[in-house]
């Protein structure tokens, strides 16, 4: 057998076979109709394919251009518009609410891992632990507004951080400049790590328009929780939407509840409980919520609801004392505030774990709530 050519992978081709293929190629070149007997695509299909490909390139270019042109304030405004939008005509839910309800089981499946991100919390924290120089570790942590930690485990230790990442005080040169660039990529140039379109859209809402929420994505909670902070927060919104009382609220009331749900646990430390995290969350949110171009009244309502979201725990610990009841009711500006507090507490418990819900949900029943309800009725001169 004559050898005429060595192939790409090192094997040899018989001369006769190789020459035969050459002859076939020459025949097709001489008679083009032969090569068209079994085309890859029909003419009309090929035209459609080219049009779609051209449109796809234009569309992706447009997205990339828009992304580059939009500033953070514009992205924040778009997020506020999306989360506060009323239901579309002929539909029961807004687009934002639909994305959560339609993907609720999928969101639950992420458990304590959090929503998938292109730049994950774990990888970012791990990189920061390595990048921060030992002599300036505490100083740079203070500038960044966080406290990094490396958990237990020899081969696969947990990495994370507590606090809200801030890059304003970091320098722009040397190692500190590189650390700042990495932080800004994590916060402002992040995106969903999922290939599921609707989940991608939902996560993209947060990464584009609510970058502070990225600090919650994948953050572990205490052992009593079944979910990470972000999954817990999104499931809390799902529970609110499914509550029959949700439909009776105004669009502003719904917006307050959803923003509170997303931000109420933002100050939680990684991996353990903090009985004062509600107060800390209110203080932290004051630092950035003004950037979202909300009215002062709306801003104050959200902050107040965040700071008071643990009212049921305080009410229970105080054994419904008159002093604690008056302290809670003093924060309400209307009877609707009390109704919203009941809804939020129930949804919050249900998004924690079955054991926690079973233990504390009875406190929201009529009889345990009677002293507080009567105080609200007395303050506003009305009856529920």
Describe the structure.
With 384 residues, the chain is mainly alpha-helical. It has a domain of 238 residues. Strands 1-2 form a two-stranded antiparallel ribbon. A two-stranded antiparallel sheet has the order 3-4. The longest helix has 27 residues.
Annotation, overall tally of beta strands: 4
- Gyration radius, in Å: 29 Å
Please count the helical segments.
Answer: 19
Percent of residues in helices comes to 55-70%
Q: pLDDT below 50 for ≥5 consecutive residues: which ranges? A: 1-24, 32-42, 52-68
The chain-level structural class is mainly alpha
Mean pLDDT: 85
**Helix/strand order:** EEHHHHHHHHEEHHHHHHHHHHH
In spatial order, strands of the major sheet run 1-2
Largest sheet: 2 strands, antiparallel
Overall geometric form? globular
Q: Report the sheet-strand fraction.
A: under 5%
Distance between the termini: 98 Å
Characteristic key phrases:
single chain, about 375 residues, mainly alpha, two-stranded antiparallel sheet, two-stranded antiparallel ribbon, 19 helices, 4 strands, about 60% helix, disordered N terminus
Summarize the structure.
With 384 residues, this protein is mainly alpha-helical. It has helices at 15-30, 32-35, 43-69, 72-84, 95-102, 104-108, 121-131, 137-144, 174-188, 197-209, 229-242, 251-263, 277-288, 296-307, 311-317, 322-329, 335-350, 354-360, 366-380, and strands at 3-6, 12-14, 146-150, 159-163. The protein is built from 19 helices and 4 strands.
């Amino acid at each position: 057998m004559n050898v005429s050519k060595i192939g790409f992978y090192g094997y040899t081709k018989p001369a006769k076979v190789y020459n035969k293929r050459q002859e076939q190629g020459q025949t097709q070149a001489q008679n083009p109709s032969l090569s068209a007997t079994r085309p890859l695509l029909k003419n009309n299909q090929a035209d459609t394919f080219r049009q779609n490909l051209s449109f796809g390139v234009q569309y992706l270019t447009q997205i990339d251009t828009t992304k580059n042109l939009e500033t953070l304030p514009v992205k924040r405004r778009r997020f506020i518009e999306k989360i506060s939008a009323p239901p579309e005509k002929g539909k029961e839910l807004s687009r934002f609410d639909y994305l959560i309800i339609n993907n609720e089981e999928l969101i639950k499946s992420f458990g304590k891992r959090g929503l998938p991100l292109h730049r994950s919390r774990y990888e970012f924290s791990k990189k920061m632990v390595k990048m921060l120089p030992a002599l300036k570790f505490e100083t740079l942590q203070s500038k960044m507004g966080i406290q990094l930690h490396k958990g237990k485990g020899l081969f696969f230790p947990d990495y994370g951080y507590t606090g809200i990442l801030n890059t304003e005080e970091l320098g722009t040169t040397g190692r500190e400049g590189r650390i700042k660039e990495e932080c800004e990529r994590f916060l402002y140039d992040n995106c969903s790590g999922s290939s599921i379109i609707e989940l991608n859209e939902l996560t993209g809402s947060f990464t584009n328009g609510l970058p502070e929420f990225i600090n919650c994505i994948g953050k572990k909670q205490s052992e009593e929780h079944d979910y990470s902070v972000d999954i817990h927060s999104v499931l809390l919104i799902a529970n609110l939407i499914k509550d029959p009382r949700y439909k009776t609220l105004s669009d502003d009331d719904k917006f307050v509840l959803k923003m509170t749900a997303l931000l109420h646990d933002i100050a939680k430390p990684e991996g353990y409980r903090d009985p004062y995290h509600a107060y800390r969350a209110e203080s932290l949110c004051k630092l950035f919520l003004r950037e979202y171009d909300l009215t002062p009244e709306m801003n104050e309502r959200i902050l107040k609801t965040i700071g008071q979201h643990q009212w049921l725990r305080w009410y229970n610990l105080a054994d419904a004392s008159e002093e604690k009841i008056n302290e809670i009711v003093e924060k309400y500006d209307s009877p609707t505030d009390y109704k919203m507090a009941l809804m939020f507490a129930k949804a919050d418990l249900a998004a924690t774990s079955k054991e926690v819900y079973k233990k504390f949900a009875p406190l929201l029943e009529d009889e345990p709530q009677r002293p507080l309800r009567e105080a609200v009725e007395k303050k506003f001169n009305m009856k529920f």
